[in-house]
Amino acid sequence: MRRTTRIATLCIASAVALTATACGKTSSSSSSGDSSSAGTKEAAAAIAYDVGGRGDQSFNDAAYAGLSKAESDLKVKGVDSEPSDGESDADKVQRLTELARAGNNPVIGVGFAYAPAIDKVAKKFPKTTFGIIDDASVTAANIANMVFNEEQGSYLAGVAAAKTTKTATVGFIGGVETPLIKKFQAGFEQGVKDTDPKVKVLSQYLTQPPNFDGFSKPDLGKAAAQGQLDKKADVIYAAAGLAGSGSIEAVSKAGKWNIGVDSDQYNQKGLADYKDSILTSVTKDVADAVYNLIKSVQDGKPESGEIRYGLDKDGVGLADSNPAYTKMTDVVAAVEKAKKEIIDGKITVKTTP
Protein backbone atom coordinates (compact mmCIF):
# COMPACT_ATOMS: atom_id res chain seq x y z
CA MET A 1 0.00 0.00 0.00
CA ARG A 2 1.03 3.66 -0.34
CA ARG A 3 3.10 4.97 2.52
CA THR A 4 0.52 6.25 4.99
CA THR A 5 2.92 8.42 6.96
CA ARG A 6 3.20 10.95 4.15
CA ILE A 7 0.86 13.91 3.75
CA ALA A 8 0.05 14.72 0.11
CA THR A 9 0.16 18.27 -1.15
CA LEU A 10 -3.36 18.15 -2.50
CA CYS A 11 -6.38 16.10 -1.51
CA ILE A 12 -8.70 14.66 -4.12
CA ALA A 13 -12.22 14.01 -2.96
CA SER A 14 -12.77 10.94 -5.07
CA ALA A 15 -11.97 7.46 -3.83
CA VAL A 16 -8.50 6.11 -4.47
CA ALA A 17 -8.07 2.74 -6.10
CA LEU A 18 -4.75 1.10 -5.42
CA THR A 19 -2.98 -1.44 -7.56
CA ALA A 20 0.38 -2.98 -6.66
CA THR A 21 2.77 -3.47 -9.56
CA ALA A 22 5.81 -5.69 -9.64
CA CYS A 23 8.08 -2.71 -8.93
CA GLY A 24 6.81 0.12 -6.77
CA LYS A 25 3.21 1.12 -6.09
CA THR A 26 0.79 2.50 -8.66
CA SER A 27 -2.47 4.27 -7.90
CA SER A 28 -5.25 5.97 -9.79
CA SER A 29 -6.55 9.17 -8.28
CA SER A 30 -9.82 8.78 -10.14
CA SER A 31 -12.91 7.10 -8.72
CA SER A 32 -13.53 5.16 -11.91
CA GLY A 33 -11.27 2.28 -10.98
CA ASP A 34 -7.86 0.93 -11.91
CA SER A 35 -6.58 2.89 -14.90
CA SER A 36 -3.84 0.34 -15.50
CA SER A 37 -6.37 -2.01 -17.06
CA ALA A 38 -5.51 -2.60 -20.71
CA GLY A 39 -8.02 -1.48 -23.29
CA THR A 40 -9.39 1.54 -21.41
CA LYS A 41 -10.72 4.22 -23.74
CA GLU A 42 -10.49 7.00 -21.18
CA ALA A 43 -7.57 9.40 -21.66
CA ALA A 44 -4.98 8.73 -18.97
CA ALA A 45 -1.66 10.26 -17.96
CA ALA A 46 0.92 8.79 -15.60
CA ILE A 47 3.78 10.06 -13.48
CA ALA A 48 6.46 7.92 -11.84
CA TYR A 49 7.89 9.55 -8.72
CA ASP A 50 11.48 10.22 -7.80
CA VAL A 51 13.20 9.10 -4.58
CA GLY A 52 11.08 10.12 -1.60
CA GLY A 53 7.79 9.66 -3.44
CA ARG A 54 4.60 11.60 -3.12
CA GLY A 55 4.30 13.47 0.16
CA ASP A 56 7.84 14.88 0.12
CA GLN A 57 6.41 18.43 0.44
CA SER A 58 8.71 19.40 -2.43
CA PHE A 59 9.68 18.04 -5.86
CA ASN A 60 7.39 15.03 -6.21
CA ASP A 61 4.42 16.87 -4.76
CA ALA A 62 4.89 19.62 -7.34
CA ALA A 63 4.60 17.00 -10.09
CA TYR A 64 1.49 15.58 -8.44
CA ALA A 65 -0.06 19.05 -8.37
CA GLY A 66 0.33 19.23 -12.16
CA LEU A 67 -1.28 15.82 -12.60
CA SER A 68 -4.13 16.79 -10.29
CA LYS A 69 -4.75 19.99 -12.26
CA ALA A 70 -4.87 17.99 -15.49
CA GLU A 71 -7.44 15.66 -13.96
CA SER A 72 -9.60 18.61 -13.00
CA ASP A 73 -9.20 20.79 -16.09
CA LEU A 74 -8.68 18.25 -18.84
CA LYS A 75 -10.77 15.40 -17.41
CA VAL A 76 -7.98 12.86 -17.85
CA LYS A 77 -7.46 9.96 -15.51
CA GLY A 78 -4.32 10.44 -13.44
CA VAL A 79 -2.09 7.55 -12.46
CA ASP A 80 0.88 7.98 -10.14
CA SER A 81 3.49 5.37 -9.36
CA GLU A 82 5.72 5.22 -6.28
CA PRO A 83 9.34 4.05 -6.40
CA SER A 84 10.47 1.00 -4.49
CA ASP A 85 13.24 1.22 -1.91
CA GLY A 86 16.58 0.64 -3.62
CA GLU A 87 14.96 0.64 -7.04
CA SER A 88 17.29 -0.22 -9.95
CA ASP A 89 17.21 1.00 -13.54
CA ALA A 90 15.73 -2.38 -14.49
CA ASP A 91 12.92 -1.81 -11.99
CA LYS A 92 12.25 1.60 -13.51
CA VAL A 93 12.15 0.08 -16.99
CA GLN A 94 9.59 -2.47 -15.86
CA ARG A 95 7.45 0.15 -14.12
CA LEU A 96 7.47 2.57 -17.05
CA THR A 97 6.75 -0.29 -19.45
CA GLU A 98 3.69 -1.27 -17.44
CA LEU A 99 2.44 2.31 -17.38
CA ALA A 100 2.87 2.71 -21.14
CA ARG A 101 1.41 -0.71 -21.95
CA ALA A 102 -1.70 0.21 -19.94
CA GLY A 103 -2.37 3.03 -22.40
CA ASN A 104 -1.22 6.01 -20.34
CA ASN A 105 -0.07 8.91 -22.49
CA PRO A 106 2.04 10.76 -21.55
CA VAL A 107 4.21 8.81 -19.12
CA ILE A 108 6.40 11.15 -17.08
CA GLY A 109 9.49 10.28 -15.06
CA VAL A 110 10.01 12.70 -12.17
CA GLY A 111 13.75 13.24 -11.94
CA PHE A 112 17.00 12.66 -13.81
CA ALA A 113 17.30 9.13 -12.43
CA TYR A 114 14.71 8.03 -15.01
CA ALA A 115 16.94 8.89 -17.99
CA PRO A 116 18.30 5.37 -18.72
CA ALA A 117 14.87 3.78 -18.30
CA ILE A 118 13.05 6.31 -20.49
CA ASP A 119 15.73 5.96 -23.14
CA LYS A 120 14.93 2.25 -23.37
CA VAL A 121 11.15 2.29 -22.94
CA ALA A 122 10.47 5.20 -25.32
CA LYS A 123 11.92 3.13 -28.17
CA LYS A 124 9.41 0.35 -27.47
CA PHE A 125 6.40 2.70 -27.46
CA PRO A 126 7.00 5.23 -30.27
CA LYS A 127 3.36 6.41 -30.23
CA THR A 128 3.53 7.27 -26.51
CA THR A 129 4.98 10.57 -25.33
CA PHE A 130 7.46 10.28 -22.49
CA GLY A 131 8.41 13.20 -20.31
CA ILE A 132 11.43 13.48 -18.07
CA ILE A 133 11.98 16.24 -15.55
CA ASP A 134 15.48 17.61 -14.92
CA ASP A 135 17.26 15.76 -17.71
CA ALA A 136 18.11 16.62 -21.31
CA SER A 137 20.57 13.82 -22.00
CA VAL A 138 18.13 11.36 -23.57
CA THR A 139 16.41 12.51 -26.74
CA ALA A 140 13.90 11.12 -29.22
CA ALA A 141 10.92 12.36 -31.18
CA ASN A 142 8.60 11.10 -28.43
CA ILE A 143 10.59 12.40 -25.43
CA ALA A 144 9.98 15.80 -23.82
CA ASN A 145 12.86 17.06 -21.67
CA MET A 146 11.51 19.46 -19.03
CA VAL A 147 14.47 21.32 -17.56
CA PHE A 148 14.85 24.34 -15.31
CA ASN A 149 17.37 27.09 -14.57
CA GLU A 150 17.60 26.17 -10.90
CA GLU A 151 20.74 28.24 -10.53
CA GLN A 152 18.79 31.43 -11.31
CA GLY A 153 16.20 30.89 -8.60
CA SER A 154 18.95 29.87 -6.20
CA TYR A 155 20.84 33.09 -6.95
CA LEU A 156 17.80 35.04 -5.75
CA ALA A 157 17.75 32.91 -2.60
CA GLY A 158 21.39 33.83 -2.04
CA VAL A 159 20.54 37.52 -2.35
CA ALA A 160 17.72 37.12 0.19
CA ALA A 161 19.94 35.14 2.57
CA ALA A 162 22.77 37.68 2.43
CA LYS A 163 20.36 40.55 3.07
CA THR A 164 18.64 38.73 5.96
CA THR A 165 21.46 37.15 7.96
CA LYS A 166 22.41 38.73 11.27
CA THR A 167 25.43 36.52 11.87
CA ALA A 168 27.08 36.87 8.44
CA THR A 169 26.83 33.07 8.13
CA VAL A 170 24.35 31.14 6.00
CA GLY A 171 24.05 27.51 4.98
CA PHE A 172 23.36 25.35 1.95
CA ILE A 173 22.41 21.67 2.28
CA GLY A 174 22.33 19.51 -0.83
CA GLY A 175 20.64 16.12 -0.72
CA VAL A 176 22.96 14.17 -3.01
CA GLU A 177 26.05 15.57 -4.72
CA THR A 178 24.94 15.44 -8.36
CA PRO A 179 25.39 17.95 -11.20
CA LEU A 180 21.75 19.00 -10.78
CA ILE A 181 22.05 19.86 -7.08
CA LYS A 182 25.36 21.59 -7.71
CA LYS A 183 23.38 24.09 -9.79
CA PHE A 184 21.41 25.00 -6.66
CA GLN A 185 24.62 25.36 -4.67
CA ALA A 186 26.38 27.42 -7.35
CA GLY A 187 23.55 29.89 -7.77
CA PHE A 188 23.04 30.30 -4.03
CA GLU A 189 26.71 30.86 -3.27
CA GLN A 190 27.06 33.36 -6.11
CA GLY A 191 23.97 35.26 -5.02
CA VAL A 192 25.30 35.51 -1.46
CA LYS A 193 28.78 36.65 -2.47
CA ASP A 194 27.58 39.13 -5.09
CA THR A 195 25.36 40.71 -2.46
CA ASP A 196 27.81 40.72 0.46
CA PRO A 197 31.28 39.17 0.06
CA LYS A 198 31.68 39.16 3.85
CA VAL A 199 28.93 36.59 4.38
CA LYS A 200 30.21 33.05 4.90
CA VAL A 201 28.43 30.16 3.16
CA LEU A 202 28.52 26.70 4.77
CA SER A 203 27.82 24.11 2.07
CA GLN A 204 27.50 20.36 2.49
CA TYR A 205 25.88 17.28 0.98
CA LEU A 206 24.03 14.55 2.82
CA THR A 207 25.10 11.59 0.66
CA GLN A 208 27.15 10.74 -2.40
CA PRO A 209 25.90 8.72 -5.41
CA PRO A 210 24.94 5.91 -5.67
CA ASN A 211 23.51 6.46 -2.17
CA PHE A 212 20.40 8.61 -2.69
CA ASP A 213 19.25 8.60 0.94
CA GLY A 214 20.03 12.31 0.96
CA PHE A 215 16.76 12.87 -0.88
CA SER A 216 14.60 10.69 1.33
CA LYS A 217 15.71 10.65 4.99
CA PRO A 218 14.70 13.67 7.11
CA ASP A 219 17.04 12.69 9.95
CA LEU A 220 20.03 13.36 7.69
CA GLY A 221 18.77 16.84 6.88
CA LYS A 222 18.04 17.54 10.52
CA ALA A 223 21.53 16.57 11.64
CA ALA A 224 23.19 18.62 8.89
CA ALA A 225 21.13 21.69 9.73
CA GLN A 226 21.93 21.36 13.41
CA GLY A 227 25.62 21.27 12.56
CA GLN A 228 25.32 24.48 10.55
CA LEU A 229 23.26 26.14 13.27
CA ASP A 230 26.01 25.28 15.74
CA LYS A 231 28.40 27.16 13.43
CA LYS A 232 26.17 30.27 13.67
CA ALA A 233 24.27 29.93 10.39
CA ASP A 234 20.95 31.74 10.75
CA VAL A 235 19.57 31.24 7.22
CA ILE A 236 19.68 27.72 5.75
CA TYR A 237 18.68 26.68 2.23
CA ALA A 238 18.14 22.95 1.75
CA ALA A 239 17.77 21.36 -1.69
CA ALA A 240 17.22 17.81 -0.49
CA GLY A 241 13.69 16.62 -1.28
CA LEU A 242 12.03 14.85 1.64
CA ALA A 243 15.29 15.02 3.63
CA GLY A 244 14.93 18.79 3.56
CA SER A 245 11.95 18.59 5.89
CA GLY A 246 14.34 17.53 8.65
CA SER A 247 16.42 20.62 8.04
CA ILE A 248 13.31 22.80 8.14
CA GLU A 249 12.31 21.30 11.48
CA ALA A 250 15.72 21.89 13.06
CA VAL A 251 16.00 25.46 11.79
CA SER A 252 12.47 26.29 12.87
CA LYS A 253 13.02 25.00 16.39
CA ALA A 254 16.18 27.10 16.60
CA GLY A 255 14.23 30.22 15.71
CA LYS A 256 16.21 30.84 12.51
CA TRP A 257 15.25 31.25 8.85
CA ASN A 258 14.65 28.48 6.30
CA ILE A 259 14.63 28.84 2.54
CA GLY A 260 12.53 26.13 0.93
CA VAL A 261 12.91 24.47 -2.44
CA ASP A 262 10.97 23.31 -5.52
CA SER A 263 7.50 23.96 -4.07
CA ASP A 264 6.36 26.99 -2.06
CA GLN A 265 7.04 25.18 1.19
CA TYR A 266 5.40 27.90 3.29
CA ASN A 267 2.09 26.57 1.93
CA GLN A 268 2.82 22.84 2.28
CA LYS A 269 0.36 21.26 4.72
CA GLY A 270 2.93 18.79 6.00
CA LEU A 271 5.18 21.67 7.08
CA ALA A 272 2.46 23.81 8.68
CA ASP A 273 4.09 23.61 12.12
CA TYR A 274 7.24 25.25 10.74
CA LYS A 275 5.80 27.62 8.13
CA ASP A 276 6.61 30.82 10.01
CA SER A 277 10.31 29.97 9.75
CA ILE A 278 10.16 29.50 5.95
CA LEU A 279 11.16 32.96 4.78
CA THR A 280 10.81 32.08 1.10
CA SER A 281 11.27 29.14 -1.29
CA VAL A 282 13.05 28.67 -4.59
CA THR A 283 10.22 27.46 -6.78
CA LYS A 284 10.36 25.33 -9.92
CA ASP A 285 7.16 25.29 -11.92
CA VAL A 286 7.16 21.51 -12.17
CA ALA A 287 3.37 21.54 -11.83
CA ASP A 288 2.87 23.60 -14.99
CA ALA A 289 5.52 21.61 -16.85
CA VAL A 290 3.62 18.39 -16.11
CA TYR A 291 0.25 19.97 -16.91
CA ASN A 292 1.50 21.53 -20.16
CA LEU A 293 2.87 18.22 -21.40
CA ILE A 294 -0.37 16.38 -20.62
CA LYS A 295 -2.38 19.12 -22.35
CA SER A 296 -0.16 19.03 -25.42
CA VAL A 297 -0.84 15.31 -25.79
CA GLN A 298 -4.57 15.83 -25.34
CA ASP A 299 -4.48 18.59 -27.98
CA GLY A 300 -2.81 16.24 -30.43
CA LYS A 301 0.38 18.31 -30.54
CA PRO A 302 2.67 16.58 -28.04
CA GLU A 303 5.69 18.53 -26.84
CA SER A 304 9.10 17.04 -27.50
CA GLY A 305 12.73 18.00 -27.16
CA GLU A 306 14.10 20.42 -24.59
CA ILE A 307 11.53 22.62 -22.85
CA ARG A 308 13.39 25.05 -20.62
CA TYR A 309 11.88 27.01 -17.76
CA GLY A 310 13.82 30.00 -16.40
CA LEU A 311 13.25 33.32 -14.66
CA ASP A 312 12.20 34.92 -17.94
CA LYS A 313 9.17 32.61 -18.14
CA ASP A 314 8.55 32.41 -14.39
CA GLY A 315 9.64 28.77 -14.60
CA VAL A 316 11.78 29.35 -11.52
CA GLY A 317 11.44 32.07 -8.93
CA LEU A 318 11.29 33.05 -5.30
CA ALA A 319 8.02 32.68 -3.37
CA ASP A 320 6.55 35.58 -1.43
CA SER A 321 3.82 33.81 0.56
CA ASN A 322 5.29 34.55 3.98
CA PRO A 323 4.12 38.02 5.10
CA ALA A 324 7.38 38.37 7.02
CA TYR A 325 9.26 38.28 3.72
CA THR A 326 7.11 40.88 1.98
CA LYS A 327 7.62 43.25 4.92
CA MET A 328 11.39 43.14 4.36
CA THR A 329 11.24 45.80 1.67
CA ASP A 330 15.02 46.09 1.28
CA VAL A 331 15.30 42.34 0.75
CA VAL A 332 12.44 42.26 -1.75
CA ALA A 333 13.92 45.21 -3.65
CA ALA A 334 17.35 43.56 -3.85
CA VAL A 335 15.79 40.31 -5.10
CA GLU A 336 13.71 42.11 -7.75
CA LYS A 337 16.77 44.03 -8.94
CA ALA A 338 18.78 40.81 -9.25
CA LYS A 339 15.93 39.09 -11.08
CA LYS A 340 15.74 41.88 -13.66
CA GLU A 341 19.50 41.87 -14.17
CA ILE A 342 19.53 38.10 -14.73
CA ILE A 343 16.69 38.32 -17.26
CA ASP A 344 18.37 41.27 -18.99
CA GLY A 345 21.64 39.36 -19.23
CA LYS A 346 23.59 41.66 -16.90
CA ILE A 347 24.19 38.80 -14.48
CA THR A 348 25.23 35.37 -15.68
CA VAL A 349 24.64 32.75 -13.03
CA LYS A 350 27.09 29.87 -12.73
CA THR A 351 25.89 26.29 -12.93
CA THR A 352 28.81 24.78 -11.01
CA PRO A 353 30.20 25.90 -7.62
UniProtKB/TrEMBL annotation:
Its main location: membrane. It is found in: Cell membrane. It is a lipid-anchor. SUPFAM superfamilies: Periplasmic binding protein-like I. Residues 1-22 form the signal peptide. One of its GO terms (cellular component) is plasma membrane. The keyword Lipoprotein applies. Keywords: Cell membrane, Lipoprotein, Membrane, Signal. It comes from the Bacteria. Residues 49-339 form the ABC transporter substrate-binding protein PnrA-like domain. Belongs to the BMP lipoprotein family. This is BMP family ABC transporter substrate-binding protein. It comes from Streptomyces paludis.
